[in-house]
Amino acid sequence: MKRKRVLSIIQKIYVVLLFVFFYAPVAVMIVFSFNTSKANVVWQGFTTRWYGELMSDSELWEIFGMTILIAILTTIFATLIGTMGAIGFKKEKRKWAKLITNSVYFPIIIPEIVLAVSLFMIFNTTGVALGVLAIVIGNTTICLPYVYITVKSRLVGMDPSIEEASLDLGADRIYTLFHITIPQILPGILSGAFMAFSLALDELIITSFLADAGTTTLPMKVYSSMKKGISPEINALTTIIFSVSAAGVIIYLVADVIKSHKKLFRRHHS
Amino acid sequence: MKKSSEELKALKKKGRIMKSKRERLTTFVMQAPLTIWTVLFVLAPFCLLAFMSFMTKGPLGIIQYTPTLANYKEIFNPVYADVIEQSLVIAGWTTALTILLGYPLANFIAKVKSKTASLLTILLMLPLWVSGLVVLYSFVIILNNSGLINTFLQNIGVLSEPLQLLYNNFAIIVGMIYMFLPFAVLPMYSSIEKLDRGLIEASKDLGAGPIKTFFNVTLPLTSPGIFAAIILTFIPCIGYYMVTDMLGGGTSLMIGNLIYRQFTISRDWPFGAALSMVLALIIFLMVVIYTKLGGDLDDLGA
Amino acid sequence: MSKAIVSMMNVDKIYGENHVVKNMNMNIAEGEFLTLLGPSGCGKTTTLRMISGFELPSSGTIKVQGERVEKKEPYQRDVNTVFQNYALFPNMNVYDNIAYGLKVKKVPKAELHERVMEALKMVQLEGFEKRRITQMSGGQKQRVAIARAIINRPKVLLLDEPLGALDLKLRKQMQIELKRLQKKLGITFVYVTHDQEEALTMSDRIAIINQGRIEQLATPREIYENPKTRFVAGFIGEINLLESMVLSVDGDTAVVGTEVGKATVKIDPKKKIKATDGVAVSIRPENMKFSKKPVEGFSIKGVVKEKIFVGNLIKMMVDLNDGTEIKINRFDTSDLAEDGELVYLYWDLDKGVVIKEKNLVDTDSVRDIEGGDPDEEE
Prior knowledge:
CATH class of the domain at 60-230 in chain A: Mainly Alpha
Largest sheet of chain B: 2 strands, antiparallel
Radius of gyration of chain B: 26 Å
CATH class of the domain at 94-300 in chain B: Mainly Alpha
Distance between the termini of chain A: 42 Å
Low-confidence stretches of chain B: none
Order of helices and strands of chain B: HHEEHHHHHHHHHHH
Helix content of chain A: over 70%
CATH superfamily of the domain at 60-230 in chain A: MetI-like
Low-confidence stretches of chain A: none
Mean pLDDT of chain A: 88
CATH topology of the domain at 60-230 in chain A: MetI-like fold
Oligomer: heterotrimer
Order of helices and strands of chain A: HHHHHHHHHHHH
Shape of chain B: flat
Helix content of chain B: over 70%
Strand content of chain B: under 5%
Structural class of chain B: mainly alpha
Distance between the termini of chain B: 55 Å
CATH architecture of the domain at 94-300 in chain B: Orthogonal Bundle
CATH topology of the domain at 94-300 in chain B: MetI-like fold
Radius of gyration of chain A: 24 Å
CATH superfamily of the domain at 94-300 in chain B: MetI-like
């Protein structure tokens, strides 16, 4: 018993250390967003100047806006196509369908760079202009499998007779899709969309291959400025983004706790 | 009015499950976008990649459409073979360490209450949701010669000279582990969670110690999760050239960097394509082994 | 004879290599309670699903109210289904589940409300309308499923093992309720089950299905007393089957010979039974009699193996020479034979049913009801 407790303490220490490893760079990023040194490699002193400069840095905001725009477009396309595909191919048993559904996984099993150069070459040889559209296509391609997989797993878990019941009660296939199927798989669609959005936000390899001279996204900007040292301004921006996501997570968790308490409360009273 | 055996045979040949016209129409509409997308932006580009890898590079990077195997032969040129070897070594180390470090964490998450487990997974993914690159850059601040670790160690007098922590394989591997460990933990966590606790109890009941139980029961039963984790680390690792660039300082090249250069600096598409094909084939082989071992492709995306 | 509300003509269903439903012909009368009974995998559920439209037949015709529907979508058919696992919409409460069919049809709000309330009352769930589906018990879910299916006032209600998930006591209670509801509504019920007792209690007629074919379609009593095939005889209740050959025919009686002796049976002249035909004679245990002395016309004898007293019922097993075990049920405790004693078996002539196979039911069931025209095919 004693050995067991020692083991469990060691395990907890280990987990804490791992999380320290994960959050130390985040902490450094946040702290260094208040660094006076522009080169931002060693700590010189405290300032909030970078947050101020960030606010008035129209170029950085433009890049940020572009990144968000690409991420949103990607999310819309990937979610729409991935969801429709997962529903459409659910019961499909024909041979050609297998080729398609297996190929859907391709972008996540081959390294991103291979997909990036393949798309780069095909756009070049077919004369599709690089730029925002090409980037959105590339990002959508890599995000699609995630949406497809999450939606598919929801569909697999869904009782097929529920859809049949709807048809049976006089609803046609479109009505059934919107009133029965989609509400059922919504959590899968949302988590797929969320995954697509966060992937697209941070995508660099495909984006940099498919960008034209006039298009820059945040990861591209970070990457290109890396050699000179990332300016504290970018740290500041990332800190803001991180705080917003962290706040989102906290709100979600709090809401979850409240909800489960309410459920308990209701159960006691019914 | 019984059907003749010929009629029945014809019906059997038709074979497929009958669907009404409308159902077929809705199914078609739902399938079309994904099908078109996959053909245009996955299959076609990949075919072009394969095609291009057999073409000849002309002067100024213009492609000459004469088939050749030269690009593949070029890969065996010691300069490039070294790069491939080095990539495999770095990716191998990263993967091994990621699994070793990640498995106990996955095990821990699988054992706590489900609420705590989901909180821990969210915490694990949170740093990467933001901007992997910016967070990764923090390692430059932490590891450089006048960085946090060296300053600290020098201040307390352990070191007199700064330790070279940055711009070497050590830094690359640390950065890679940071990027890919969260993704590796998830499949291992889900396979451990699915594990039948009864089996472990049974093994212990039969007199096997915890270590024996782990190697004889837990490890084999969670191997699909481990293999998924290996794939999820190894694949991106080998092609992710940013980490090598940022933390390796150009000292080491990975296949990813090499491919990147063929399309930016050297303008040698056919060679880049050939390298990509080799990379894709290595990965493809791994995935085939993974599915043959009973792995599910879906686990690679969640 | 009443009108056929559902008729199936020469219906086949083939999945790949599996021939699930074979040349099925069936007419279902308006207002009747028809049960499709058979072992699992016999094609009964597939048959039901072809009527509802979830499966399309590989060939053949299905008519509902005289209108061909075999290629129509489920929502274009005037039938509704109660599913085995209820298939309630988990994202809606009880009220919205029941109202679904009317909402789809855009029934005005006031009428919709009235009808939902009426349906709730019908299944005795008043006051439950705001409940979530997850808060309902199995029996309550079943009632919601029924209410949801009958609110559209279908001509035919299809029920796919609706009581399968309930415990025995609740199942008995729901059987009675369902039967009562069917009488009250006056709609046709097509009921799928593998539980023979359930089928015998509830049905007006039963279709016994085996390996994709209807073996017999008749009233429960007819099926019990006069099984047409060995399968039907064996599937419903306990039975003694004696494989035998016809030795001689004399008007409406015949003498048959088994390996262990002869017996006299009554035959139906319509069945055209002649000497040397191979037949099976089926006798229910309660109709099997024994005597310590030979009985005229019978020469089958055996040894009493054991007796089991089940309340006021005595179950007796008699071993024949060839190893067959004969079951006898008696309510009369007088004149019992001892274990090991030799007895002669006999039965009242009209209680021994002669089964001559290959006179399967295909067209029989169509004949009784007008309206189906088996010749009309695409």
